[in-house]
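Now for a concrete sample entry.
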Amino acid sequence: MPAFYSPEWVAAFNAALADLAVAQPDGGPSLAAADGRFRVLQVVHDGPDGADVRVVLALADGRLTMAAVADDDPERVNVTLSLSYDDAAALSRGELEPAALVGTGRVRVRGDLAVLVAGQALLASAAPQLAELQATTTY
């Protein structure tokens, strides 16, 4: 069972979505989302080993992928989320709604909010492909 956000978990996430061609997101006012290409950086604080985890969810060429990145990731991101590991895990398990975290200030968001909404919508539509990973993830 892969640990949440471990390299094995990220690889399993990508494998689960490898054959999924995602629909063009409704980017609303976001040129990045409307273009069909975006990058969402998630900075997760205080992971199980006390370290921060940084992952990028990217949409490009009709594919949704995730990658762990270093602090000095040179590629531009459209939006950055910063939250605790506990809140990220609760979101993954479906125990929290993203809007609730934003509304209470438990997640900090910087950048294009329309990209964030498009990314959430794509993840929701990919939920059936990610169900087995979610069921076997350890937190």
Remarks:
- Residues 113-125 form the longest helix (13 residues).
- Helices lie at 7-17, 31-35, 85-93, 98-104, 113-125, 127-136.
